[in-house]
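REQUEST FORM: STRUCTURE PREDICTION
Request ID: SP-0412
Submitted by: Lab K.M.
Chain count: 1
Length (residues): 503
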Amino acid sequence: MQEEYILQMKEISKQFPGVLALNKVSFNVRPGTVHALMGENGAGKSTLMKCLFGIYHPDSGSVVFKNKEVKFHSVKNALDAGISMIQQELSNVPFRTVAENTWMGREPVLPVKGLRLIDHRKVTEETVKLMQELDMEVDPNAMMSSLSISQQQACEIAKAVSYGASVVVMDEPTSSLSEKEVDHLFKIINDLKSKGVAIIYISHRMNEIFQIADEISVMRDGEMIGTYDAKDLDNDKLINLMIGRVTTQQFPEVTAVPGDVCLEVEHLSSVNPRSFQDVSFKLHKSEILGVGGLIGAQRSELMEAIFGLRSVVAGRIVINGKEITIHSPKDAIRNGIGLITEDRRGTGIFPLMSVLSNTSIASLDKYRSKLRLIKHADVSKTAVDVNSALHTKTASMQTAIQNLSGGNQQKVILARWLMTVPDILIMDEPTRGIDVGAKYEIYTIMSELVKQGKSIIMISSEMPELIGMSHRIMVLCNGRVTGFLNKEDATQEAIMRYATQFS
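STATUS: Completed
RESULT:
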C-alpha cells in the first residue's frame, strides 16, 4: 500500500556520456526507519540520491514523496519539501564560520524596513541551541577550515538535521568519525527515528549497517538487486549480493618478506608543540608498516611532515642510508616518496580536471623530451594502463574526475602516485569510503607493490585492515609513538592499549 511509504522512487533511469548510471531503479522507504542503501562504488547509490535531492535530473521515472508526485529541479526544492542530505564529500565553505555554514541561504534577518540585514546574533544563538540539542561540542564562531575532518563531518550532520526534514540521506556519514563519534551519531539517528523521520543510510562499514539498519536495499551496476529485512542478512550474504560473487577472504595474503631498512625517521618533532614530538621509526624494503591510533593522534600530520607539507623543528629523515632534506612535496617526490592524503576532495582530486590530468599531474617531468616537451601519447598510454590495472570505472579518460564515484576517485589518486614510480608510498586511510570489492582490489595492489620491492606506510582507523595488511604496526597517541607490534602479536586489544596510553 502506498501509505506504507514516505518515499517512493519508481523506475529511475539516468545516463551520462557512455555510462548508464541508473537503469529503472525503484526504491521505497518507510517513515521512522533506517533504510541502508548498499552496493560497490559505481553501483549507482550516490547517483540515485542525487536524483532525489535535485542535484541530478533523472531521464525517466518518478518520485512520490508523502503520497504526492514531486519533481525537484534544485537542492532548494528538495530541502523546502522536507528532504535533507549529508553528502559523501564535505561541501562546506572553508573560510566561513560554523554558524554561517549551518544557516547559509536561510539566515534569520533583522526587522529593518526596506533592508535585508542578517541577524548574526541569532545565527550564532540558533547554532549554539542546535549543537546543545545534538550534544555536540563545536564552537559556532570557529572558522570551518580550522576544524578537523571529523569536526567538519559533525557540522554537516548538524546542518542536515537542522532542516527538520522528514527524510535525511546520510552518504558515508561516519567515514571521518571516531568510534565515540559514531556512537553519538547513532543516538541522533535513533532520536530522529522516534520522531518518524526516515533515514537513508549509505556506508561501506558492515558492522554499522547491521547495528543501525531496519531494511537493506542492494544495488549493483546501476540496477536494484532487491530489498531485505536487515535481520535476514549477515555479512557474507550482503557482500555476495553487492558484488555478485562469493568471497572467500577479506584480505589477500601478503607474501613479501621485508628486507633492509629503506627509511629511517629519527626524533622528528613538529614546530607545533601540540603535534607530533620525538618520533622515531624504521621502514623496511618490501614492508607494509601500519600506523594506528585514535583521531587526534597526529598520524596524518607526521606523514605530511615527511612528505614536506608541514614544518619540523628537529629530527632527521634518512633514505637508503643517506640523510635527506625535504622542504616540499617536490623534494619528497624526487626522493621516491608518494602520499595519498586522507581528504580525497580537499587535498586529493582536482575536481574540474579530467581523469587523465588527475592521474598524470604528479609525474609529467618523467615524460619530457630533450626539448622539455611533454610526450602526451606516452603519458596517456601509461595513465590508461595504470587505471585499467586498478579497474577504475570511467566513461573515458577525459571525464571530469568529479563525475566519478568516491571509490573510483580514490583509484585515480592511487594511479597518480603509481605513475611516479615511488619507492615509498604513504597511504592515509586508503580505503575510506570504498566498498568491499574495491577494498580487496586495493589490498591486492598493495601486496603486489611490496612484492615488487616497494615499501608502504598505511595509516588506517580500521583495526581489521591494520592487522590484516601490515607486517608491523606503529601506534601513536597524542603525537608520540607508544609502541610497535609485529603481525603475530597484533590484536585489537593490543592496539587500543597503545592508542590510549597517554589519553
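NOTES: The longest helix spans residues 179-194.
Reviewed by: T.R.
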